[in-house]
Amino acid sequence: MAMSNSGGVNREHDRSQSSKLTFAILHGAIAALCIWLAFGTLDWPDQPRAGILALCAVLYWLRHLVTLFVLMQRRVALSEVLGLTAFMALFEVGFLLLGSGEVSGTPTPPRLLDWLGCGLVLFGSTLNTGSELQRWMWKMNPSANGRCYTEGLFTYSMHINYFGDTLLFTGWAILTASVFAWPIPIFVTASFIFFHIPALDAYLADRYGADFEDYKARTARFVPFIY
Question: I want to staple 85 with a disulfide (CB 3.0 to 4.6 A). Which of 26, 52, 97, 109 is the partner?
Answer without folding.
Answer: 26
